[in-house]
Design a protein that fits this description.
The two termini are about 30 Å apart. This protein has about 150 residues and is α/β, with parallel strands linked by helices. Strands 2-1-3-4-5 form a 5-stranded parallel beta sheet, sandwiched between helices. The chain has 4 helices and 5 strands; from the N terminus they run βαβαβαββα. Helix 1 links the parallel strand 1 (about 20-25) and strand 2. It has one domain: Response regulator (Rossmann fold), CATH 3.40.50.2300. The longest helix is centred in the C-terminal third of the chain and has 21 residues, at about 125-145. It is globular and about 35 Å long.
Length: about 150
């Protein structure tokens, strides 16, 4: 069971004050998805998991996510290709994408995502990265229509 420290409680996420954040998770690793899902559920995040996606656009258009979390090495395409699909449409181009992989970051195109996590990573590292983008989403809902990009190296 995951022990959520004080800094990772729902009240630490300002976006929860307006509505539950929406996160799409794309990964064929069902065990990792289940672990992430349990933590996101405890935090009150509205999330959907997809184990196989060829076209993320219908999912993004229907779910209207605040964030996409994806594995880079997927059996049918790469997380970078999913990110490119989002970037090609005006209404989804600013959705932050956090990508993770055991594949070395130096071999992944630098513009493939907004943040990259090297596997293995801890849940705390994942939550810190997610929180950066969710705090940004909360502030943007109040002040601006477009999200800036981060490079969390």
């Amino acid at each position: 069971m995951v022990n959520l420290q004080q800094q990772y409680r729902p009240e630490s996420y300002p976006i929860l004050q307006s509505r539950s954040p929406r996160i799409i998770i794309v990964d064929n690793d069902k065990i990792l998805c289940e672990r992430i899902s349990r933590v996101f559920w405890k935090l009150g995040f509205n999330h959907k998991i997809y184990h196989q996606v060829d076209d993320i656009m219908p999912i993004a258009e229907n779910f209207n996510p605040d964030l996409v979390l994806t594995e880079y090495l997927l059996p049918w395409l790469t997380g970078g290709e999913l990110c490119s699909q989002l970037r090609m449409q005006r209404h989804t181009c600013e959705i932050p994408v956090i990508m993770y992989s055991s594949f070395p970051k130096v071999l992944i195109p630098s513009n493939a995502c907004d943040a990259f996590l090297q596997k293995p990573f801890t849940i705390n590292t994942l939550l810190r990265t997610v929180n950066c983008f969710l705090k940004d989403c909360s502030q943007l809902r109040q002040h601006a229509p477009v999200s800036p990009r981060f490079d969390l190296n």
